């Protein structure tokens, strides 16, 4: 999507995503603090639930549209909607096109899509922020999170993180490979999904990073869930949390 | 772990040494591909997109281009046949063989011939059909199936191959790759000379000139059409490209995407049978264009899959293929391209293969490496939706139903209630919750502590205190 087609501005809405609503409140909090730091006023519409991706990836597009229509109604398309997730924002910007392909309200879904942004993409391409202040002393391996392919999310996250004083982004092998979550794939293909996750953990942690970072908590939930069961936890942070910690360290 | 999906079960039960062979081979090809593309081109992604447009344009105008290719081929002296089905193609090949009193055929690598199970058909009809590509030859000796479209025996190691050769009477046990290759070579030399008919595939056919482009690394396609008088080229109708110069784009991408080579060792352009202008080659040339469901695919929501140039890059990068191997897909075309194509080629037997599109985390790596930019994840999603609409159970086995969930997610009051109720999860062992999806998650994964609604409360309090 061209930057010029997209809705930007500093009056923003947060779509926290269902995973941050249920498990990862710290990520949603960090997102609010990061957005406020760059001068945004953040609203959190009460009626929000989920983007509809679980049903979409399962092939149930009637259910997808039911949830997507609710989401389109809940958010105001004249203001940017920010998501701390590459996957959910990809769902809205690409998945809705497919799910509404033959529907009368395709344009409503597309209008909302033009106002939706993943956090890092918004900071860099929506607001034009090139570097991030503060300090964070850590070696970080940043998982790419597959649904950011073809979007500006990963490059934006790398741009911001690498500009933070003290941050060292480390390269690791097979960075193009998926963690194995894949929504309902993780339960329909439990063996393959877990094997992929174990391999991913091995690669992400090979160089002993201080932090494993991600732009998506879904990948993180899967990876840390496996690591936890194996009794070999690693420190994990969402990119918003790293940005927030850097700010706090500056104060 | 228990699973209802056949490919997941296959991956679970796959012998570790096969998984290792597939993993090592895939990774090597992936790495070489990236190197060879970035070394040669400043913007490989742009070339990939251009190639996609060339192929898509051809598909949008296929009747015209196919018509022109046929006209040119006939003008060049080839006899052109159209086969609606695989059975038709087999019969045409048998009829050609009978017309020249032939019982021996030698063939170079052709996925289309695998698709129509040509070898078995010819054997049943009293003809010999010998594979001359080394990998395919080994597959044939073993009565096995190729597990990869470019490297058919990526699932085998040299010890297994040495055993195969010993059993086939090709010398004593010897697992030295050079020895194996030399033995295959001396066996096949005689077969090339004995064969009355040579069969090849065709990687591209130019509509402009009728020129067939054929790539191999072993030079076996040239041998197949050197010593005999009849050449049959068996080609899918989607292999047509508009102009000779389009081959510059496509050939530059094909070998790089497949094996990381700049070009295959042999690239042949076949312009027709022996003639005054072309003193070498077989006297008779037959070109069989195979449809086998392709016209139906062309008119469907899956038409982009016909852009495929069979490089195998999507297999090599696919994490599910790497875990499960090609045989998991139960079809001639494995991996992401196979998961899209195989159910469609199955025609009325679509439901039997409707689980294949579920073999993906939709990570999109396949699209990223595809030399013709096929939107594979989108096509996999379309299959899942089709299976759901048609009520095919095999596709959704193991996937929780989304009907109730969608009501929950479109009713904010219910959603908020569940944010409170979810807390119960922290106090119950997940392994005891009798929901298959929860069991599948929890066997080897924990869930983080439930913190439903915590952020909402934090945000409200913060707004109040501002």
UniProtKB/TrEMBL annotation, chain A:
Organism field: Pelagicoccus mobilis
GO cellular component terms attached to this protein's record: cytosol
The Cysteine-rich domain, residue ranges: 15-92, 141-223
GO molecular function, one term: oxidoreductase activity
Domain of life according to the entry: Bacteria
InterPro entries: Cys_rich_dom (IPR004017)
Name of this chain's protein: (Fe-S)-binding protein
UniProtKB/TrEMBL annotation, chain B:
GO biological process per UniProt: lactate metabolic process
Highest taxon listed in the record's lineage: Bacteria
GO MF terms held by the record: 4 iron, 4 sulfur cluster binding; metal ion binding
InterPro entries referenced in this protein's UniProt entry, alphabetically: 4Fe4S_Fe-S-bd (IPR017896), 4Fe4S_Fe_S_CS (IPR017900), FTHF_cligase-like_sf (IPR024185), Helical_ferredxn (IPR009051), LUD_dom (IPR003741), LutB/LldF (IPR004452), LutB_C (IPR024569), NagB/RpiA_transferase-like (IPR037171)
Keyword Transport among record annotations: yes
4Fe-4S ferredoxin-type domain span: 299-319
Sorted UniProt keywords: 4Fe-4S, Electron transport, Iron, Iron-sulfur, Metal-binding, Repeat, Transport
PANTHER family per the UniProt record, alphabetical: LACTATE UTILIZATION PROTEIN B
NCBIfam families from the UniProt entry: LutB/LldF family L-lactate oxidation iron-sulfur protein (TIGR00273)
Name by which UniProt lists this protein: Iron-sulfur cluster-binding protein
């Amino acid at each position: 999507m061209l930057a010029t087609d997209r809705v930007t501005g500093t009056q923003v809405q947060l779509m926290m995503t269902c995973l941050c609503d249920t498990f990862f409140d710290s990520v949603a909090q960090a997102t609010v603090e990061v957005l406020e730091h760059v001068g945004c006023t953040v609203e959190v519409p009460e009626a929000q639930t989920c983007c509809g991706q679980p049903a979409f990836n399962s092939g149930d597009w009637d259910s997808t549209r039911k949830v997507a229509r609710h989401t389109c109604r809940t958010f105001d398309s004249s203001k940017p909607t920010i998501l701390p997730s590459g996957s959910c924002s990809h769902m809205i910007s690409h998945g809705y096109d497919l799910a509404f392909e033959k529907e009368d309200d395709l344009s409503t879904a597309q209008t909302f899509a033009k106002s939706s942004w993943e956090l890092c993409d918004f900071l860099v391409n929506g607001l034009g922020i090139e570097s991030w202040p503060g300090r964070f002393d850590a070696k970080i391996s940043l998982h790419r999170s597959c649904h950011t392919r073809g979007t500006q999310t990963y490059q934006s996250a790398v741009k911001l993180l690498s500009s933070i004083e003290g941050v060292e982004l480390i390269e690791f092998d097979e960075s193009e490979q998926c963690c194995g979550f894949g929504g309902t794939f993780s339960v329909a293909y439990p063996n393959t999904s877990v094997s992929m996750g174990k391999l991913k953990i091995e690669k992400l942690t090979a160089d002993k990073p201080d932090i494993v970072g991600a732009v998506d908590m879904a990948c993180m939930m899967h990876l840390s869930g496996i690591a936890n069961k194996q009794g070999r936890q690693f420190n994990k942070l969402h990119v918003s949390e790293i940005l927030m910690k850097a700010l706090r360290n500056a104060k | 772990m228990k699973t209802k999906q056949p490919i997941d079960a296959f991956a679970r039960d796959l012998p570790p040494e096969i998984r290792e062979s597939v993993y090592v081979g895939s990774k090597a090809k992936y790495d070489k591909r990236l190197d060879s593309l970035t070394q040669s081109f400043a913007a490989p992604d742009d070339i990939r997109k251009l190639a996609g447009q060339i192929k898509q344009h051809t598909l949008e105008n296929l009747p015209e281009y196919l018509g022109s290719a046929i006209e040119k081929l006939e003008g060049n002296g080839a006899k052109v046949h159209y086969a609606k089905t695989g059975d038709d193609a087999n019969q045409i090949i048998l009829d050609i063989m009978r017309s020249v009193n032939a019982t021996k055929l030698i063939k170079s690598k052709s996925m289309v011939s695998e698709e129509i199970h040509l070898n078995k058909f010819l054997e049943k009809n009293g003809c010999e059909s010998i594979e001359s590509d080394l990998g395919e030859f080994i597959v044939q000796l073993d009565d096995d199936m190729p597990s990869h479209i470019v490297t058919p025996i990526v699932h085998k190691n040299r010890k297994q191959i040495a055993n195969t050769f010993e059993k086939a009477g090709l010398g004593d046990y010897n697992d030295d790759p050079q020895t194996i290759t030399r033995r295959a070579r001396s066996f096949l030399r005689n077969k090339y000379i004995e064969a009355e008919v040579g069969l090849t595939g065709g990687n591209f056919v130019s509509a402009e000139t009728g020129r067939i482009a054929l790539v191999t690394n072993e030079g076996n396609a040239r041998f197949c059409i050197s010593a005999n008088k009849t050449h049959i080229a068996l080609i899918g109708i989607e292999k047509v490209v508009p102009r000779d110069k389009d081959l510059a784009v496509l050939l530059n991408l094909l070998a790089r995407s497949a094996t990381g080579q700049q070009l295959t060792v042999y690239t042949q352009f076949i312009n027709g049978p022996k003639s005054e202008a072309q003193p070498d080659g077989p006297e008779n040339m037959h070109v069989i264009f195979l449809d086998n469901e392709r016209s139906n695919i062309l008119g469907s929501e899956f038409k982009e899959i016909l852009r495929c140039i069979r490089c195998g890059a999507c297999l090599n990068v696919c994490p599910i293929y790497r875990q499960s191997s090609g045989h998991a897909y139960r079809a001639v075309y494995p991996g992401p391209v196979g998961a899209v194509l195989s159910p469609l080629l199955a025609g009325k037997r679509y439901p039997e293969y409707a689980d294949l599109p579920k073999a993906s985390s939709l990570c999109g790596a396949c699209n990223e490496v595809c030399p013709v930019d096929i939107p594979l994840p989108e096509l996999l999603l379309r299959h899942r939706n089709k299976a759901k609409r048609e009520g095919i159970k095999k596709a959704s086995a193991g996937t929780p139903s989304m009907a109730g969930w969608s009501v929950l997610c479109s009713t904010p009051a219910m959603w908020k209630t569940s944010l409170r109720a979810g807390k119960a999860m922290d106090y119950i062992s997940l392994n005891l919750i009798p929901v298959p999806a929860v069991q599948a998650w929890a066997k080897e994964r924990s869930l983080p502590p439930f913190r439903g609604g915590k952020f909402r409360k934090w945000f409200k309090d913060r707004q109040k205190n501002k």
